[in-house]
Amino acid sequence: MNDDRIKCVKDSEITITELMIPAYANFGGKVHGGILLSLMDKVAYVCASKFSEMYCVTVAVEGVEFLAPVEVGELVSFKAAVNFVGNTTMIVGIRVESLNVTSGKTAHTNSCYFTMAAKDPNGQLAKVPALKIENDTQLRRFCEGRAIRDFSKQKRALLKSDLSQCSILELKSMVNKERCQVDY
Ligand SMILES: CC(C)(COP(=O)(O)OP(=O)(O)OC[C@H]1O[C@@H](n2cnc3c(N)ncnc32)[C@H](O)[C@@H]1OP(=O)(O)O)[C@@H](O)C(=O)NCCC(=O)NCCS
Questions:
Q1: What is the set of domains in the chain, with CATH numbers?
Q2: 33 CA distance to ligand 1 centroid (A)?
Q3: Residue among 59, 92, 146 whose CB has most ligand 1 atoms within 8 A, to mutate
Q4: 3-state SS of 47-86?
Q5: Which of 89, 90, 128, 149 is the pocket-test mutation for ligand 1 (most atoms within 8 Å of CB)?
Q6: pLDDT digits (tens, 9 = 90+) for 145-171
Q7: CB of 9 closer than 8 Å to CB of 131
Q8: What pLDDT does 1 receive?
Q9: What is the Cα–Cα distance from 2 to 115, expressed in whole angstroms?
Q10: Angle at the Cα of 43 (from 143 to 68), degrees rounded to 5?
C-alpha cells in the first residue's frame, strides 16, 4: 500500500441509520446501551476501513456518554468521519441521533471517539493516509483528536505507574473519604 497518500475527510464520511427493534430493548423497554455500542463499533470500522482501504481493528473508545434514552421504534442515525490520523491509527468521531418518525422529534443521544488501527494482510500495523484539512471545523476536530490521543496516553500512564507504585496503606488512605468500606 502506498504510504504517501493524502485523503479528505469526506472520503471517510458515512451515515448509517438503523431501526430500533424490540429485540434491542432492556427490561425497562429502552434500547440497551450495549446495542448502541456494538452498532457504533461497526460504524467506526466502516468509516476507518473506507478511509484507509485496509482491514481495521478497534483499539480504544473515548467519551461514551448516553445523554438521552433511545426508544424501540425510533430510527437511530450514526454519522461518522475520521477526525484525526496518527501513523497507524485514526480517530473516528461518531454522532448518534434518534428520530421518532411519528412526532418528528430528534435527540442527540451521544458522541464518541473510536481509535481504529489499520492492519496489513499479515496482521501488522500499517500506515494510514494523511488527512487533508479543508475547513475550520475539520481543523478543530483534528486538534480535538490530537488532544484525545494525548489525554488517553496520559491516562494509561497514570493508571500503570502511579497507582501500581502505591502501597496498600496509601491506597486505603486515598479512599477513606469515599463511599466505600475497606473491610479487610
Ligand atoms: C492496540 C495495538 C494496535 C497496539 O499495538 P503496539 O504494537 O503496542 O503499538 P504501539 O505502542 O507501537 O502503537 C501503535 C499505535 O497504536 C496507538 N495505541 C496503542 N495503544 C493505544 C491505546 N490504548 N489507545 C489508543 N491508541 C493506542 C499508538 O498511539 C500508535 O498510534 P500511531 O501509530 O497512530 O501513532 C495492538 O495492541 C492491537 O492490535 N490490539 C488488538 C486490537 C484488536 O484486535 N481489536 C479488536 C478487539 S476484539
A1: 6-174 (3.10.129.10)
A2: 25
A3: 59
A4: HHHHHHCCEEEEEEEECCCCCCCCECCCEEEEEEEEEEEC
A5: 89
A6: 999 999 999 988 887 777 788 899 999
A7: yes
A8: 62
A9: 22
A10: 80
User: What's the residue count for the chain?
Assistant: 184
pLDDT 10s digits, 81-126: 999 999 999 999 999 999 999 999 999 999 999 999 999 999 999 9
Which residue's C-alpha comes closest to atom 14 of ligand 1? 88
d(CA 124, CA 118): 8
Q: Rounded to the nearest whole angstrom, what is the distance from the C-alpha of residue 96 to the centroid of ligand 1?
A: 25
Q: What is the pTM of this model?
A: 0.92
Alpha-carbon torsion 172, 177, 179, 184, what sign?
positive
